[in-house]
Specification:
single chain; mainly alpha; two-stranded antiparallel sheet; 4 strands; globular
């Protein structure tokens, strides 16, 4: 099938928005992606280093609270109140970062970039844990994904594997090589979480050709990655393991642990044939079909290998393949994508979203997303959000989508369009006769909008 602008804006973006032209060609989509990241500049979200002072303050306030609790007296309530105030401040920041993420998706001309950022952020899933890191997950895409989304996979892998939120999420800070003094003294032990997830989820895939011995050797190689005082990762040789280590049949490292040995291993794993196949299948599954065309997966696998993981080359192969333009809508929008595409179609102004108060943010976004099965920044585990339609099309999930479609648009401070016009805007000529009739027959605007946003055509891409 040839390029289709309607399919392009829906399957590879967040759907139509009044006043925003759909992509004119795959070349235009790739050229925009290769250009500057205008949405990140327009709706800024900080990186980890930028919020590191907040994280340190949380730790200091927590220490003060624990000390006050041991001592008792009036100081306890003061310390408790100070920590609570900091938590509330960070919750407000987290809400603002969510709205920035939403605005990036709903106003972008370069919507393909925003879809790719969410794809890779889910591929390298992190979850903020504990008092210090609970609200830090938003920094991960800013530091890891957006700078490398049009670069090389190996560079994104390196950035992901050394990011403080990833290291904390997978308990890497507590790991020590089996031959280190810390381990020999019984003060720390080897933690395999990061090594296992890099091999199983981020690169080779669960069916990749690696063994438990590879996981353990790789974990020993990774031991020593830690958080520095400046909010960046640092390598502590005393926590590492005296080498060498054999990972996937190759020897890395020497007696003195070094960060360069970790980077060498990551680069080799990024080039592994199993990595090429795993990334190819995930990309095709996410954008095209839960059961992707085998020729598309093969083409992506070959291009990944031949280009040494050049992501722009990979995207070009995806967009140039006929399977990518099949007219059938094979993918179900995940809840965030469903909500974002609805806000985009309704032409909700960016400043309207950023001005929402705490109550409205909860009612319009946070609570409904949780009911739909996708609470913000809270996937079930390091494997991220499921792709299969059956996970999202459940009685509770559908009920929550319908409820949002009927109620949320009226809660936003926008003039609701005539359903007879909106059905053409939101579905861009893909509406069935049944949906068009229902839109025409609606007694009120909010009912008509709800019908259109609840339609099967709008749920799919």
């Amino acid at each position: 099938m040839p390029f289709d602008p309607v399919i392009a804006q829906n399957r590879f973006g967040y759907g139509p928005r009044p006043g925003v032209k759909p992509p004119a060609s795959t070349r235009q989509m790739l050229d925009m992606l290769a250009g500057p990241d205008t949405q990140a500049a327009r709706f800024p979200i900080p990186g980890f280093v930028d919020i590191y002072d907040d994280i340190q303050e949380v730790q200091n306030l927590t220490n003060a609270f624990r000390n006050a609790r041991r001592k008792g007296g009036p100081g306890l309530e003061i310390a408790k109140a100070a920590r609570k105030e900091k938590y509330q401040e960070l919750n407000r920041k987290r809400a603002a970062w969510f709205l920035a993420s939403m605005n990036r998706c709903t106003t972008a001309n370069d919507a393909f970039r925003e879809r790719l950022v969410r794809f890779w952020a889910d591929h390298f899933t992190v979850i903020g844990k504990g008092p210090r890191f609970k609200r830090a997950a938003a920094t991960f895409p800013e530091d890891v994904v957006r700078p490398h989304v049009n670069g090389r996979f190996a560079d994104m892998l390196r950035a992901s594997s050394t990011h403080p939120v990833m290291l904390h999420y997978l308990d890497q800070f507590a790991s020590a090589g089996e031959g280190s003094k810390l381990a020999m003294q019984g003060k720390r032990s080897l933690n395999e979480n990061l090594a296992r997830e890099i091999l199983e989820l981020h690169t080779l895939g669960v069916d990749g050709e690696y063994t438990q011995d590879d996981v353990r050797a790789f974990a020993n190689l990774l031991a020593g990655l830690a958080l520095g005082k400046d909010g960046r990762y640092r390598f502590r040789p005393k926590n590492g393991n005296p080498g060498p280590e054999i990972v996937l049949g190759k020897s890395y490292g020497r007696q003195q642990p070094r960060i360069k040995d970790i980077f060498e291993a990551l680069d080799d794993i990024a080039r592994h044939p199993d990595t090429a196949r795993h990334i190819a299948r995930k990309l095709a599954t996410h954008f095209v079909s839960d059961d992707p065309d085998s020729e598309l997966v093969d083409a992506l696998t070959v291009r990944f290998t031949e280009s040494d993981g050049d992501l722009m080359a990979l995207y070009e192969t995806l967009l140039d393949h006929p399977a990518a333009w099949a007219p059938e809508q094979m993918k179900i929008k995940q809840p965030f994508d469903f909500v974002a595409s609805a806000v985009r179609a309704l032409d909700v102004p960016a400043d309207m979203l950023t001005s929402l108060n705490r109550r409205d943010r909860k009612l319009v976004f946070f609570a409904p997303l949780a009911l739909m099965g996708q609470p913000w920044e809270s996937p079930g585990g390091p494997d991220g959000w499921p792709e299969d339609a059956a996970h999202w099309i459940t009685p509770q999930g559908l009920a929550a989508r319908i409820q949002w479609a009927v109620s949320a648009p009226s809660s936003l401070d926008v003039t609701l369009p005539d359903p007879r016009d909106f059905v053409e805007i939101a579905l861009a000529g893909q509406a069935t006769e049944m949906t068009q009739f229902a839109a025409r027959a609606a007694e009120t605007r909010w009912e008509g909008i709800g019908i259109i946003l609840s339609s099967p055509e709008f749920q799919r891409r």
